[in-house]
Amino acid sequence: MADCNAAHRVLCNPATEVSAHYLISESGEVQALVPEEMRAWHAGAGSWGGIQDINSQSIGIELSNTGFAPFAALQMLALETLLHDIMRRWAIPAHRVIGHSDCAPGRKIDPGPRFDWQRLARQGLAIWPAEITPLEPDAGATDIALQTFGYTADVPAETRLGAFRLRFRPRHTGPSDGIDRGLAEHLAARYPAAT
């Protein structure tokens, strides 16, 4: 959406059949749209790990941003406060905080390559891998690790890799390499989707 008002109109219009529990403006205003205990259709058809209907088991937060612009400082502060409260209320571990691009790879790109996942991880609100030693490139092994970590098997391997890179290696392109494998295997070992 072009701005927060446009996003609010879409998220609150029953005809669009899309909403979220929260919308955060660039200025840091948090708008509660759907009660947390109710289902919001924020991810569309999305899955993570063994969860095939992510909307039924998640709390959706939309940030007013095109996905290609830097996220405003006040918006990030509001997100951090909101995430902390939600994670405490629902006992959500940091590795279960994911983006729409993670649960709907190929169809969703948000929060996008400019989103600061490392900032959230430093506060225990998401995860970020430690420095990883690259492994021998092996696209098959990388793909198995990505699925173990949580990315759906319902899309092509290249789509899974693209979603993974959007979050952990933004702006990196080309064939799967040893850094992809090292990161994917590290994340799969530490945070398998079954946990």
Description:
With 195 residues, this protein is mainly α. It has two domains: 4-116, Lysozyme-like; 139-190, no CATH class. The chain has helices at residues 4-11, 73-90, 100-103, 117-122, 139-149, 157-168, 178-190; strands at 22-24, 30-32, 61-63. A three-stranded mixed sheet has the order 2-1-3, with helices on both faces. The chain starts with a helix and ends in a 5-residue tail after the last helix. The relative contact order is 0.13. The model has no long low-confidence stretch (mean pLDDT 94).
CATH topology of the largest domain: Lysozyme-like
Q: What's the number of extended β-strand segments?
A: 3
Give the CATH level 1 class of the largest domain: Alpha Beta
Distance between the termini: 34 Å
Relevant CATH superfamily of the largest domain = Peptidoglycan recognition protein-like
Low-confidence stretches: none
CATH architecture of the largest domain: 3-Layer(aba) Sandwich
| Tally of DSSP helical segments | 7
Biggest beta-sheet profile: 3 strands, mixed
Sketch the topology as an H/E string, one letter per element. HEEEHHHHHH
What value does the average pLDDT take? 94
Q: Which structural class matches the secondary elements?
A: mainly alpha
Largest sheet strand order: 2-1-3
In angstroms, what is the radius of gyration?
A: 16 Å
Helical amount: 25-40%
Shape: globular
Quickly count the domains.
2
Range of strand content: under 5%
